[in-house]
Amino acid sequence: MLKAIGMMQNEVRKMIILEGIFYGLLASLIGILLGTALNYGLHVLFAGILDTAWVFPWASIGIAFAGAMITSLAAAIWPMYRINKVNIVDGLRREN
Question: Which of left, alpha, beta for 8 (phi over 0: left; psi -120 to 50: alpha)?
Fold first, then answer.
């Protein structure tokens, strides 16, 4: 639809990639905050049983961030390649 109203192919590609990056950053932020809070909550819950110090989980945060970014970019880029194969007129006909 965007190509039909005048957007160039590289503009559509850039928009989709930036959207995937935005969703990845948002998902990472939410996941890191919730995961760290749950991690600390479990530490406090088991503080009487296990005598360990809580350490900020930097390695886990890095892995979760990378996983969320890769997943969101793959989820954005894969349909983009399928859309590029569709003719603009045929795509608009199927949409209605």
Answer: beta
The answer to whether residues 20 and 26 touch, using CB atoms and an 8 Å cutoff, is no
The span from the CA of 35 to the CA of 79, in Å, is 29
Which residue ranges of the chain lie beneath pLDDT 70?
A: 1-6, 84, 86-93, 95-96
Residue 87 CA, chain-centre distance (Å), reads 28
CA nearest neighbour of 40 among 52, 54, 60, 58: 54
Please classify residue 24 by burial: count the beta carbons closer than 10 Å to its beta carbon, then call 0-12 exposed, 13-18 middle and 19+ buried. Answer: buried
pLDDT in tens, 23-42: 999 999 999 999 999 999 99
Q: Give the integer Cα–Cα distance in Å for 7 and 16.
A: 12
